[in-house]
C-alpha cells in the first residue's frame, strides 16, 4: 500500500469571482481539522466546489452546465457581459514546509487554464502533479460531496466493483484487457476455421481416392448394360410391329360398325326434327291463345274499376234514399204533430177566453156582497183616499217594481224555454255524432283490413316478381356459364375420345389408390405444367414416366404390380418415393439467361391443397427423377447453343424437339405425342364436364317462367282491386269526417249559446229575487202607514186592522185579480205559441225530400242499368276466356304428345350417340395406340441411335426373333429385362465414377500441405495473443485484489471504531465478499455491515444512520488504501444522531489531530487533513478551527471568517 512519508496539507484558498464569492477573497488558514459552518444558502457548498474546481473536477459535478456558470454574476445582465473571468488558487504546504500553488482559471472564452506556481501547464501535467501528491481526480479520493454517503450506501455489487477498480487503478487496464480479449476470440475463431479447412481437405482427398478406384468398375458395367439393352430393344421392336398390325385390323372393323350407327342416328334426328316443327306449330297456337286471354284480361281489368265504382255508387244512392225516406217519415210525423199542436193551442185559447169572461162575471157579483153602512163606507172611502194620497208615492214605486218584476219574469221564462230547446238540440247532435262515429269506425276498420290485405298482396306480388326475376337471372347466368364451359371444352378439345386402354388405366389407378394407402396417383394427376405452352415439352422430357404411378415405398409398388397381374390389367411404371435415387438439381442451370429454364421449374405440384407438406417434399423427388436436369427453351437455335456448344445439356423446345448431350435431335410433333400432351388437361376437362352437368340439372330444377308470369298477373289484379276499394273508402271516410266536423262546429255553437244564456238566466233570477225583497219592503211600509190611518176606523168596524177587513172582505176580489192576471198571461203565451206554429212551414221540407227521393230513384235505375250491362260484358269476356283456355289446353296436350315422342327419339338418338361415341372412342383409342406404337417405335430407334446400339435392318429378321407371346409372358420378360438393367444401372449409379479423380487427387495432396502450414501459423498466433491476454488479466487481477485485500482487512477495524461505545466495547462487524474470485473485476462485491446487537440484514434494510456509518466506514477504508493528504467532507453527518456524530468526529480527530497525520497506523494507514462542512455543534466543536461562511447582503456575495479553536481546547 502506498503511503506518504511527509504528507502536506491545504494552507489557504485564494479565489476571485467564483460562484457566490465576489471579487478577490482569501479563505484560511486551514488547520489539520477544520470545520466549515454557516447558515443554509450562505455558500458553504460553493467553498467546497471551489476546492473541487481547482483540483480538476468537471463543471457538471459542480452544479453547473458549463464553466461560465461558475463565474459570479449579480444578475442576468452581468451574466451576459463578455470578458468575465474567475480563478481559484489553492496554496498547498508540503511536508517540508514549502508551498506549492495550484491555480485554475476560467478564461473569457469559457475554457480552463491550469498553472502550477504561476506557470501555465497542460491538464496532463497538472493531473500528474496532483497524482504524485496522492490526489486522484478521477477516483475523487479526497472528496465526498453532499449526498455521496447515501449513494455509497445504496450502491449495488457491480457499482462497488466499478468504484474499487477506479481506486485500485485496474480500471486503466480495462480497455487493453477488453481489446486483448477480443483479439483472443478472433484468433481462436480463425484457428478453428483453419482446422475445419484442413479437415475438409483431408476428407476430400480420401473421397477422390475412392472415386479413382471406382472409375474402372463403372466402365466395365457400362459395356454389360449396352449389350443387354440391344437385346431388349430388339425384343420390344418386334412386339410393337405385331401390335400395330393387330390394331389396324381392329380399326377397320369398328369403322364399318360406326357407319351403320351414324345412319341410324341420322334417321332419329330427322324424325325428331319433324316432331319439333309440329310442336313449334302447337306452341305458336298456344302463344296466340294466351295473348288473346291476356288481352281480354287486360280489358277486363280496365273495366273492373268502373264496375266497382258503379257498385259503390248503387250502394251510396240506396243508402241516401233510405236515409231520405227516414227523414221524410220524420218530417211527416212532425207535420202531423204540428197540426195537432195548432188544434190543441186553439182549443186552449178558447178555454182561456171563457175562463176570463166567467171570472169577470164573478167579479161583478162579488162587489155587491160587500156589507157596510153608508156612513162607514163613506168614511172608509175617505180614509182610503187619504191613505192613498199618503202612500201614493210608495204605491207608484211598488207599481213600477211590479211592472219590472212582471217583465223580468216573462223574460226569465223565455230564456228558460230557449235553454230547454238548445239542450234538446245538443242531445240530437250528440246522437247524430254517435251514428257518424260508428259509421266512421266501420269504414276505418274496413280500410285497415283492406290495407293489410293490400300489404300482403303487394308482398306476394313482390315475392312473385323477385322469384320471376331471380329465376330469369339465374337462367341467364346458368346459360352464360354453360356457354363459357362449352367454349372451354371446345378449346381443350374435350370432344376427343378417351381410349379404352386409358380408361382401364385410370380405373386401375383409382382402384390401387383405394386399396393401398401408399399409392398417391399418376404423375399426370399429381403435377402439371405451369402454362399450357409447356405441355408438349414436359411430355417429351418425362417420356415413359408421364404415366408412372407414384407410391410411398418399394413394398407398395410390389403389391400394386401383384394386383395388376392378378386382374390382368395393363402394366404400369411405379416410382417408390423412399427408395428412388435422384441427382440434385444443378443450381447454375437456373441462371443461364435467355428463355432457358429447368423443366423442373415449369412443373406445378402438388395440385391438391389438402396434401401434407411432407408429401410435397417427397413428390419433388419423383418429379426430379422423371425430368432430371433437362432444360426447356422457346426456340430451336437457343436449344442448339445450349446443347451443343461449350458444356452440353439435354434440352427440349416448347415444340417438342429434343436435343441430347450426345448430339442427336428428335424433332416434330407426332400424333401420339401431341395426344399424350393433351392428357395434362384431363383433370380440368373432367371438372368442367361435372360443372356442365351440375348447371344443366339446376336449369331443369328452375320453376316454369310462364307459370310464374301467370301468378304474378293474378297478384297484380288483386292489388289493383284492393287499391280501388281503399280509394273509395278514403273518399267516404273524408265525407264522414267533414260531416263530423260540421256537427262538431254546430255543437260548439249550441254550447256557446247555452253558455251565453245561462249567465243571463242566473242574472234574471237574482234580479227577480232582489226585486221581490224590495217589493215586500214597500208593502210593509205601505201597510204600516195604512194601519196607522185606519186605526180608529178599524176599531169602529170591530177589526184588528183594515187589512184584516180587506183580507176577509176583499180576498175574493184579490184572488179574482190574480186569476185574471194568470189567465191573461196564459192567453198571451198561447197566442204567441199559436202564431209561431202557424208561421212554421212544414210542407216545404217534405216536398223537397220527396223530390230528392224521386231524383235519386231515377239515378239509381240509370246506374243499375249500367251495372247490369257491365256485368253482362264481363260474363261474356269470361266465357270467351274459358273457351280460349280450353283451346290452350288442347294445344298443350298435343304439344306434350310431341314432347313425349321427341323424348323417345332423343333417348334413342342419345343411345345411338353413345354407341357412336363409344365406337369413335374405341377407334380413336386404337388409332392413338397405333400412333403411340409408331411413336414408341420411333423413340426406340432414336434411343438406339442415341445410345449407339445397332439393331437388325431387316423387319423379317426382327419378327423372326420374337415368338407369339401373350401379355403375361411379355410382362414377365419385360420385368426380367428391367430387373437385369435396373440391377446394372443401380450398380453403375452406386459407383458414381469420376474419371478425372487422379489429377484431382494429386492437387488435393498439395493443397493439404498448404493448409497444414496455415493451421500451424494460426495456432502460434493464437498462443501469443493468449499469453498477452493472460498477462494483462493477471496484472489487472493483482491491482484489483491488492486494493480489495487492503480495504477488506481495514473496513471491519474502522467500522468497529465508528460503532463501539462503553455499552458495546467491541462495536459492530463489517466485511466485503467477492461474488467471483477468479474474475473479481467482472462481477460484484457484496458489502455487509452489522451494527452492535443487530442480526445480519441486507444494506437496504438498515436505518438511515446505520447506512451512513457503514458508508463512512467504507469511504475511510478506501481512503486508507490510496490516501490523499486531505479529506473534504460535505455534511456527512446529516443522517446521524448526536452519539454517532460524536463517534465520527472522534474518528476524524484521531486521524487528523495531535500529530496523527505524521504517524502511520498499525494497519498501515496514515492520517490526513480533514475539512468538514457541518451544521451540528457536537461535530464542529471537535475541530481545531472554524471557517464561518455568511452572506454579505450589501455586496450580495458570500464572505468568510476563520476562528482558531486550539487556544480554547480543554486540557
TrEMBL record:
Keyword check for Glycoprotein: no
Molecular function via GO: ATP binding; ATP hydrolysis activity; DNA binding
Lineage: superkingdom: Eukaryota
InterPro entries in UniProt: P-loop_NTPase, RecF/RecN/SMC_N, SMC, Smc1_ABC, SMC_hinge, SMC_hinge_sf
GO biological process, one term: sister chromatid cohesion
Subcellular location: Chromosome; Nucleus
Residue stretches of biased makeup (Basic and acidic residues): 324-343
Region Disordered, residue ranges: 323-343, 449-468, 906-931
Pfam families assigned: SMC_hinge (PF06470), SMC_N (PF02463)
A GO CC annotation given for this chain: cohesin complex
Keyword Cell cycle attached: yes
Domain (SMC hinge): residue spans on this chain: 517-643
Residue runs in coiled coils: 170-271, 685-788
Alphabetic keyword roster: Cell cycle, Cell division, Chromosome, Coiled coil, Meiosis, Mitosis, Nucleus
Family label: Belongs to the SMC family. SMC1 subfamily.
Protein name, entry field: Structural maintenance of chromosomes protein
Organism placement in taxonomy: Eukaryota, Viridiplantae, Streptophyta, Embryophyta, Tracheophyta
